[in-house]
Every structure is written in structure tokens, then in C-alpha cells.
Amino acid sequence: MRIFALVGKSGTGKSFRSLEIARENNIEAVIDDGLLISHSRIIAGKSAKHETNKMASVKRAIFTDKDHADEVRTAIRENNIQSLLLLGTSEKMVSAIAGVLGLPEIEHIFYIQDFATSEEIELAQSMRNKYGKHIIPVPVFEVKKLFSGYFLSAFLPQGRRDKALERTVMRPTYSYLGDFKISPRVISDICRFEAKKIDGVSDVYKIKSIPDANGYIDIGIEISVVFPCDIPKTCNKIQEVLDKAIEDSTSIIVKNINISIKSIKTD
Q1: How distant is the alpha carbon of residue 188 from its chain centre?
Q2: 39 — alpha (psi -120 to 50), left (phi > 0) or beta?
Q3: Cα torsion for 215, 47, 139, 87, to the nearest 10°?
Q4: Cα–Cα distance measured from residue 158 to residue 220, given in angstroms and rounded to the nearest whole number
Q5: pLDDT digit string (tens) for 152-167?
Q6: What percent of the chain has pLDDT above 90?
Q7: Cα separation of 34 and 139, whole Å?
């Protein structure tokens, strides 16, 4: 197995540049902030950007958690990955990651200043320091599975059409800009407003949303319908509409929407 590394200070654009560096050097996979990434997919790991403070994020990025390290080590072996690019803020950090994961000695270290001008690095650090923005080198649709409740946006370098180079822009919880919470009342109001617009729904009663440890939610909703009504079709429509409305408005991913028919009303 061939091991490479990309080193640069925090916020200088390592994640942004990593995809093109890997492609130009025929490197199969990237390890960035605790994630194993290959072919625009997150193969294994947990992102340091999930952590609530900077210290915890650093520990996550260097795999101090044994279960985390074991998961990524196993995924490297099972996916038969033969070349890896490790991202870190120093030579010491990437060497530590290689050691924890039981990888061979690093063959070559790239430095961010060899791929970005001083002006580009300054701009990247400004975006990090002023706006708390971070890059994850995979497309938004892949990141959404791990970051329920985070507002994400896609970024593709100007003039490039290759979706394999798409990155995701996000702001982690530990950003100095602070955190935000979405009240369960907001979820209920969205559900009530959207459900009442659906043909066949007469009224909306009790709504309950239950979050899990990963930020996903289960929703329970009680409704009445108008007779005659195709109940299965109406329920499918409710699930489809509420799922989209909640994700579009809050970025929270809905796991299940359970619908109870409380009554059937006639004209």
C-alpha cells in the first residue's frame, strides 16, 4: 500500500484541494477529519465536524477512539484500498494517523502552499475565520446522510463540470459562530401546514417528533380524512410532502412518518 499526505495549517484549503491532488496522483482514497472517502463516497468513519468543541474534533481527526480507528482500518482492508492520502495540519499529525491505523510509512508529503497561492490560502482562511465555513470533499447527497440538521451547500470549482469534484460546504457545531436549535414546535407547524393542503385531509390533530442521537427524527401525526378517500394514497402523499418540506426547511432528515387516522368525516 502506498501512503501519501497533504499538510497545511487549519483553514488553508486542504479538503478543497484534496480531490484534485488525489486524482492527479492516482490515489484511491482520502482520510480527512476522521472520514475515509473514496470515489465521492464516505466509506467509513465519523467526521470530526460532528464534535461540539475544537478539542474533541482534533481527537476525532487523529482517531483516538479505538472503535473509530478499528472501523476505518477494517474498511481499508475490506475495500482493498492500495493508496491513501492523509490530510493533517502537520507532519506529526499525519504520521500519528498512519501509526494509529497501522499504515505503512508515508511515501511522500505534499504541502498546501505548493498547490495554492498565498492569496488563495488567505481567502480560504478568511472564509474559515469570518464565517466558520468548512469543506468536506464529497457531494452534498453523500454528506446529508451523516449531517442531519446541518445546513449544507454544494460547491463545484468554477469552470469544472465533473461532479466527482463536487465538495460540500458546511459550518460545524464547534464554529465560534455558535449553534442553533430547531424547536419541536417548528416541526409540528410545518407538518400541520403542509398536511392540511393535501386533498382528502380534513383536519390535523396531535403531532409528535422524536429525535435520535444522530439528529434524525421520527414523526407521528394524527389526522382525519374526508369520505370518500383513498386512504393509502393520501397517507403516501402526506409522507412524501412532509419529508420534503421538513428537509427543505430545516435540513433535518426524517426516518419515519407514522400516520394515524383518527376519524373519517362525511360531507
Answers
A1: 24
A2: left
A3: 170
A4: 43
A5: 666 655 555 555 556 6
A6: 51
A7: 17
Name beta bridge partners: 209. Answer: 219
* Kind and range of the H or E run holding 83: strand 83-88
CB-CB contact of 143 with 32 (8 Å): no
Residue pLDDT, tens place only, 237-267: 999 999 989 988 877 888 999 999 999 988 6
Supply φ then ψ for residue 103, to 5 degrees: -90, 160
**Mutual orientation of helices 184-196 and 231-250 as an angle, nearest 10°?**
140
Q: Where are the alpha helices (DSSP H) in 49-152?
A: 54-61, 66-78, 91-100, 118-131, 140-143
Give 190: exposed, middle or buried? Use CB within 10 Å, 0-12, 13-18, 19+. Answer: buried
**pLDDT tens, 196-230?**
999 999 999 999 999 887 778 999 999 999 988 89
Unique residue bearing C-alpha cell 468554477: 158
Residue 112 φ then ψ, to 5°: -60, -30
Q: Give the Cα separation of 143 and 168 in Å (integer).
A: 7
81 compared with 159, residue with greater pLDDT: 81
